[in-house]
Amino acid sequence: MPPIVETNLPYPLYKRGKVRDVYRFGEDKLIIVATDRISAFDWVLPTPIPHKGEILTQLTIFWFNFLEDVMPSHHVKVELRSLPPEYRLRTMLVKKAVAIPVEFIARGYLTGAAWNEYVQTGTVWGMKLPSGLREADKLERPIFTPTLKATVGHDEPISFATLAEMIGWESAEYLRDKSIEIYEKAHRYAYERGIIIADMKLEFGWIDGELAIIDEVLTPDSSRFWARDTYEPGKPQVSFDKQFVRDYLTTVWDKNSTPPELPEEIVKQTYQKYVEAYNRLTGRDFNKIVSQ
Fold this sequence. Notes:
Layout: E1 13-16, E2 20-25, E3 29-34, E4 39-40, E5 43-44, H1 52-66, E6 75-76, E7 91-95, E8 98-99, E9 102-109, H2 112-121, E10 123-124, E11 127-128, E12 138-144, E13 147-148, E14 156-157, H3 160-167, H4 169-191, E15 195-207, E16 210-214, E17 223-227, H5 243-249, H6 264-282, H7 286-291
Helix pairs in contact: 1-6, 3-4
């Protein structure tokens, strides 16, 4: 089956994101379709990753179920039997939420933007950290680093005080604490299965006045997954996530012009990394599932 890049379902289109198409389903529900598009550095790349949308959707559903005792999600547990079979694994029915335009990021290791800031200032999101830390070092305790979602360009780091001004102090404290709790529970689970979750970003929204997890959660697109058995601080890590594509692009692209096509070998390795993450975390064989 060729990669699904564009979708055309018999429902009103609600919006198209970088990698997801969203359709209206009645008055209070949405159908989210994860395509095989992949984005990096705020660009949608011209080369899709086969089955990527199916992996992201099925892994998100797995985590929604795993985290039910921590916080509800917007996922509605029904199968949309009227959809074409090629959409079976990449589609979720969800309750419509009033989304908070913030990415709630929990970090357990010093990497990515946090590492870049630390090298320059010794801080992360303005928080002072001990001196002498290395790239990929495990932090003494997870830290919370929210960002404001940008409609155009890069997301903007914000302080906890700014978040509290946006949604109220009580809600900000609640979602900060829930983000850390979700990260710690997922980290423990994944570590036992050979994956270190270095960091993760979550999105939340209000549904009938109650806060819930929305969008995707703990996927290779929204988290950094490292191989536990090769983990060694002081350098970049072997990963099972989108960082592999980012690392390749930095060697061939200026990030300002139209992005290049991905070579076949990069596409293949990216697919294999996503599948490995899914298999380790769920204990299931994705290739068997997709062939059923």
